[in-house]
Amino acid sequence: MTQSVVVQVGQCGNQVGCRFWDLALREHAAVNKKGIYDEALSSFFRNIDTRSGGNGPDTYKGKICSLKARALLIDMEEGVVNEILQGPLRDVFDSKQLITDVSGSGNNWAVGHKLYGCQYRENIVEKLRKTAEHCDCLQCFFIIHSMGGGTGSGLGTFVLNLLEEEFPEVYRFVTSVYPSGEDDVITSPYNSVLAMKELNEHADCVLPIENESLFEIVNKIHQMINSGKLGSTVKQNSLVTSSAGSAKTLQERPFDAMNNIIANLLLNLTSSARFEGSLNMDLNEISMNLVPFPRLHYLVSSLTPLYTLADVNVPSRRLDQMFSDAFSRDHQLIRADPKHSLYLACALLVRGNVQVSDLRRNIERLKPSLHFVSWNQEGWKTGLCSVPPVGHSHSLLALANNTCVKPTFIELKDRFMKLYKKKAHLHHYLQIDGMEQSCFSEAISSLSDLIEEYDELDATKGGPRIDPSRLKIAV
Amino acid sequence: MSVVTVQLGQCGNQIGHEVFNALCSDIHGTHGLCSKKENESYHDCCKERFFCKEESGAPIARAVLVDMEPKVISQTLSMAARSGHWKYNSHSHFCQKQGSGNNWANGYSVHGPRHKEAIMNLVQKEAEKCDRLGGFFTIMSMAGGTGSGLGAFVTQCLRDAFPTSFILNHVIWPYGTGEVIVQNYNSVLTLSHLYQSSDALLVHENDVIHKICAQLMNIKQISFRDVNQVIAHQLGSVFQPTHTAGEGSGYSRNPLGDLMETLVPHPEFKLLGLRNIPQMPENSLAYSTFSWPGLIKHLRQMLIANAKMEEGIDWQVRPPHPGSSIPSTNKPLHFNTSIANLVILRGKDVHDVDLGSFQDPSLYTSWLNPQDAFNAWKTPRAFNKYEKSASLVSNSQFLLKPLDSIVGKAWNMFASKAYLHQYTKFGIQEEDFLDCFTTLEQVISSYTNL
What is the pLDDT of residue A293? Predict the structure, then answer.
């Protein structure tokens, strides 16, 4: 069994990360009834004997003593991390796995990447090495950050670079929260595009998320519950936005519901690696099957169902509805419509009481309405994990490598150009040591190239299919 | 003579477990509708072939379990032990911590060489436990990374270490509509490599077995377990003891050797398909009766029309008239030409069955005598609760269309260079791909021109 390490950077990264660890504990508590530290737990947690003050060797097997998250918390201001360390999760984090500063990055990518990057490089490398040493077989780093700010965006992508240098064999999955159009950080387009260049070059897979989509999902759930349309009661802990049953007892803060969605995304993504199933789908398989060309590694994700009703018998009609929903516009975690764009590849990871025939039936049913690229007409990767998420009997995570990410990138580029043409706020960046105008031009050029690659693929959509001629053998 | 089974990857291990289950439940189940002496002889032969006797009761399967990640093997070992009827040797397994990521190159070029010694040590130990080693039976899928890539490497190692032993690869063809996106690449690489080292490839297609589960077995929500149990039943019908040399002789002492001798006369033609009838849900068995003439007629038409199961057979397809000189290109395309066929019959009144219809020369290519091209093994001991059971192992054009389809899709993807960077980073280059495509186009051409 392999281990994964979560690196949460910046305010957004740490707030999402906090929800992730909370829900991860909840998930394992639901499955692990005997309190034995098993391999599934070890993928995200260490088991420490507290008597030796946390410095002793890890206790493998045997009863759970004290679980510590395999995480690195990084923020250039103290507020968020301090709150986590005073909250109900304080014992889950190793106090040595933190890197904080006081003044923040001022929403400036250059401050995060060049200034703090340089300053904290050694410290970060040392702490990363420590976490890696505690892993028997480290498979993947998960970076959680936002693109629009300074720390998450700048320092986060600096860490991404570092990971590639120091741990080239370990996968780098990045969960990036993209800024919305009405973002109140004026420089967010600069920060995002500068960060995009790093993601293009150094990440294995990127899961882009947009706050607007999360917000709409949260609203949708509220409406469904409050409208009384649902005959029976909704199971509270099944809501994809809920913290019910977890350690968090304080009043939920506004972003918690949205962050829970991202936390659930990561839990579902890693479920088949942690738990058993009839068709396992490990993280390295996700990267292998969904990335046909190195730079096209942006995966649009969707989670269904958003909630479960309390009635136990689920007719297969509802199961099929789950599959249909996964492809609908309003379940995607970014504002995109994969159904009307071109699929390069698609992965379906099903959890719970679902069998291969249900999977096949739904793929057959949905296939005709989806457009796949000509050289990958059967581009489906599937996985079946027997353990469902908390509160559900089954669930589905869909990951799509689809050209529908293009509009998000084009919008980002447009917002960038609006500022850049007027050279607005540029001096804040250029005054940082190591930052030059070329950083900007290279970044926008990298983004343009990426958009062009998607354009070329879109151009093939719907055209006549000409299969290349096969090798001829002399008879 | 004993057979050592090597289970590779998730698929190989899940199926292997069901195979040993099926073999065990067959010998422990109903006593087989034959004489007590016959039944005991069958029991002993099966035990010796597939199991090792230990003092402490439950027989131990002669198997080596290989996977690059631990979850499936640990599940398989514990499920077998729980059955109480048999188990695996707790040391005969090899696993690592991180899987092959559906990457054939990772399985073949990285995991293979790295773990060769450890894996071959386990195989050697199992081989040494056999009084007489009858050969190796490997189970793997083509679509993934371990079964396919590491499986191809291990097969090569088996060939190098045991140059005179028979190697039969049981290969699972994935569902046509993807389980794994790069399954066609992995399949092309696997098949072309296996063709060099293996004696024969016995193929099961997921799509076909799935249909059998749906239409013949009436299973509503089909799981991989159901699929694997049908596959295990079909394999059991071939590998359980049989009389190969006529009534009165003992059970065959060389099952794999006999299989190869009858079915693989030429190294260019190694693809074997398997059909088994009847196939139905267990609770319907009590209400059904079968006649040998009926079963034989159906089986023959399934062969000629390339039907995958007993339902939906196309009765319009007929072999060309003997004596008329129709060049091979003019034969009706849906007529399935055979190189060699083997029919295995088990159950009541088996010795009176007339198999003349299978010796019709028009079924076969011209280069073997029909007497040599067709063989029948008959056993009075019934198999797995079926009063009468007939299996056909065929070296024919059965797999031509599926093979052509896989190669076509892989070529299509290859032309766009998609996913190639994932393979080149582990040492499989474009030229290697081209070599594999060439090998398989050659095989396709050979089978087409029968």
Answer: 94
- Residues A140 and A169 sit within 8 Å (Cβ to Cβ): no
Residue B341: C-alpha distances to residues A140, A300, B245, B288, B297 (Å): 50, 51, 16, 27, 15
* Spatial distance between the Cα atoms of A150 and A161, rounded to a whole number of angstroms: 16
Contact flag B413-A375 (C-beta cutoff 8 Å): yes
pLDDT band at residue A298 using 50, 70 and 90 as cut-offs: very high
**What are the structure tokens assigned to B179, written together?**
């389980």
Q: The domain that contains B221 carries what CATH number?
A: 3.40.50.1440
Assess whether pLDDT exceeds 80 at residue A315: no
Q: Which CATH architecture has domain A3-50+58-209+254-294?
A: 3-Layer(aba) Sandwich (3.40)
Q: Which pair of tokens denotes residue B377?
A: 């093994």
Residue A347 has pLDDT above 90, yes or no: yes
**Among the listed ranges A362-371, A397-406, B356-365, which one has the minimum average pLDDT value?**
B356-365
* Percent of the residues in chain A that have a pLDDT greater than 90, as a whole number: 60
CATH of the domain at B307: 3.30.1330.20
Q: What is the pLDDT of residue A40?
A: 87
In a mutational test of the A interface, the residue from B10, B68, B179, B187 whose CB has the highest number of chain A CBs within 10 Å is B179
| Closest CA of chain A from B35, distance in Å | 41
* Whether residue B70 is found in the same domain as residue B47: yes
**CATH number assigned to the domain with residue range A407-460, chosen from the 4 options 1.25.10, 3.10.150, 3.40.50, 1.10.287:** 1.10.287
The Cα A112–Cα B222 span in angstroms is 53
- Residue B276 falls within a domain, yes or no? no
Residue A145, token pair as written in the block: 């950050």
pLDDT tens digits along A170-194: 999 999 999 987 778 899 999 999 9
Kindly calculate the radius of gyration of chain B based on its CA atoms and give it in whole angstroms: 21
Nearest CA in chain A to B99: A282
Q: What percent of chain B has pLDDT over 90?
A: 64
Asked if residue B441 is part of any domain, the answer here is yes
Domain boundaries, chain A: 3-50+58-209+254-294, 302-404, 407-460
Domain residues for the domain of B13 are 2-271
pLDDT band at A235 (very low <50, low <70, confident <90, very high): low
Does residue B386 share a domain with residue B241? no
What percentage of chain B has pLDDT greater than the value 70? 95
Q: B218 with B77, same domain?
A: yes
In a shared domain, residues B313 and B421: no
Nearest to B179 among A284, A382, A475 (CB): A382
**CATH number for the segment(s) A302-404:** 3.30.1330.20
Query: B413–A291: do the CB atoms touch at under 8 Å?
Result: no
Same domain, residue pair B385 and B421: no
Closest to B277 in 3D by CA, of B336, B226, B230: B230
Reading the block at residue A466, the tokens are 């000409």
B342 inside domain:
yes
**B119/B209 same-domain check:** yes
Q: What's the per-residue H, E or C state across B49-85? A: HHEECCCCCCCEECEEEEECCHHHHHHHHHHHHHHCC
B371 confidence band (pLDDT: 50, 70, 90)? confident
Beta-carbon contacts below 8 Å between A and B: 140
Which of A270, A283, A285, A314 is the best substitution to test chain B (most B C-beta atoms within 10 A)? Answer: A285
Q: Considering only CA atoms, which of A424, A462, A459, A463 is closest in space to residue A440?
A: A424
Residues B385 and B242 in one domain: no
Backbone φ/ψ region at B101: left (φ over 0), alpha (ψ -120 to 50), beta:
left
Please tell me whether residues B230 and B254 are part of one structural domain: yes
The rounded distance, in Å, linking the Cα atoms of A280 and A390 is: 20
User: What percentage of chain B's residues is helix, strand, coil (to nearest 5)?
Assistant: 50, 15, 35
What pLDDT was estimated at residue A109?
94
